[in-house]
């Protein structure tokens, strides 16, 4: 028994039992978890994007003060509609993809639904989850980043909302313009998802001495594992996220792809620019992803009681 074990409590969250509907449950619970994540973490995500795409801010606190002075409290939630609406399908597909990745590993290694997966199998499932998610994530991130950056100019916001921003992006470069940054998103999300789900499962097991799908888990363990998993994700994903944000918010035609963004950034700003926005990203990661995984686990517990 681990020295850091968290004993199950009367309010422990029961883990989902393997069943024919586990994929559906993963889809639904992932969507709910995504909504919890956006609500908890959007203000710090906005600061992260602004710091990544501008050199006018000296620190996270400086960015917060200037954003608050220019736009008020509501300015901290600018661009939230797109990720909030998009969070349901994006995170639903993400957790569904993770479930599918686990099923692939069980089939390849001839494991039963109750057999614990090895670390490398969990890591594969995590990386696999990013592939179907990118199809929805890329246009949502494109719209969100465009809205977040557009609010700081002297003439006010360039777009009235996510629909207006989407139409403007399409007008300027066609429907494919919404998918600008797809390769950069994959470059960020595949290794990030490996770290995300891998850290969650390993930390959760260390805290409870239980593998995925076994027994019950304390909400404290879920929050701790979920928050640290989010930080692990961004520790890996922040450099490609900087490249993605630069590419998606740049004027059309400025860059031919993520490689050109990287070369120009190294030439003009140095390697340190790849870690710009790390502060707000990590600050946001713990509460946002703690909320996400708690939402996922609680909704799974509810669905397991219903069917």
Q: What summary fits the major beta sheet? A: 2 strands, antiparallel
Mean pLDDT: 85
Helix share, percent: over 70%
Rg estimate, integer Å = 20 Å
Number of helices in the DSSP assignment: 9
Count of extended strands: 2
Which strand order does the major sheet show? 1-2
Which structural class best describes the helix and strand composition?
Answer: mainly alpha
Question: What are the defining features of this structure?
Answer:
307 residues; 9 helices
Could you outline the blueprint of secondary structure elements for this entry?
Layout: E1 13-14, H1 22-53, H2 60-75, H3 81-108, H4 119-150, H5 162-173, H6 182-208, E2 216-217, H7 219-249, H8 258-268, H9 278-306
Antiparallel strand pairs: 1-2
Task: Walk me through this protein's architecture.
- The protein is mainly α and 307 residues long.
- It has helices at residues 22-53, 60-75, 81-108, 119-150, 162-173, 182-208, 219-249, 258-268, 278-306; strands at residues 13-14, 216-217.
- The chain is globular and about 50 Å long.
- The model is unreliable at 1-10 and 16-21 (pLDDT under 50).
- It has a two-stranded antiparallel sheet.
- The chain is built from nine helices and two strands, in the order βααααααβααα.
């Amino acid at each position: 028994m681990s020295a850091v074990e968290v004993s199950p409590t009367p309010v422990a969250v029961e883990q989902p039992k393997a069943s024919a509907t586990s994929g559906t449950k993963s889809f639904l619970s992932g969507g709910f978890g995504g909504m919890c994540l956006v609500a908890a973490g959007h203000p710090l995500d906005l600061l992260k994007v602004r710091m990544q795409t501008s050199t006018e801010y000296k620190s996270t606190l400086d960015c917060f003060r200037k954003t608050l002075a220019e736009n008020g409290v509501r300015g901290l939630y600018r661009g939230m509609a797109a990720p909030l609406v998009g969070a349901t399908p994006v995170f639903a597909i993400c957790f569904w993809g993770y479930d599918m990745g686990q099923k692939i590993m069980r089939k390849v290694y001839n494991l039963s639904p109750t057999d614990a997966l090895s670390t490398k199998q969990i890591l594969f499932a995590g990386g696999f989850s990013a592939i179907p998610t990118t199809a929805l994530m890329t246009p949502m991130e494109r719209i969100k980043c465009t809205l977040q950056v557009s609010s700081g100019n002297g003439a006010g916001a360039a777009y009235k909302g996510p629909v207006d921003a989407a139409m403007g992006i399409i007008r300027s470069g066609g429907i494919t313009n919404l998918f600008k940054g797809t390769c950069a998103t994959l470059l960020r999300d595949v290794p990030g998802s490996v770290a995300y789900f891998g850290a969650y499962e390993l930390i959760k097991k260390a805290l409870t001495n239980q593998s995925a799908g076994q027994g019950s888990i304390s909400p404290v363990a879920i929050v701790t594992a979920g928050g640290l998993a989010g930080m692990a994700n961004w520790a890996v994903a922040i450099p490609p996220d900087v490249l993605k944000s630069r590419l998606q918010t740049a004027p059309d035609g400025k860059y031919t792809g993520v490689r050109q963004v990287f070369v120009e950034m190294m030439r003009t700003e140095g390697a340190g620019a790849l870690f710009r926005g790390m502060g707000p990203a990590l600050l946001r990661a713990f509460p946002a992803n703690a909320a996400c995984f708690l939402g996922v686990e609680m909704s799974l517990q509810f669905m397991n009681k219903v069917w």
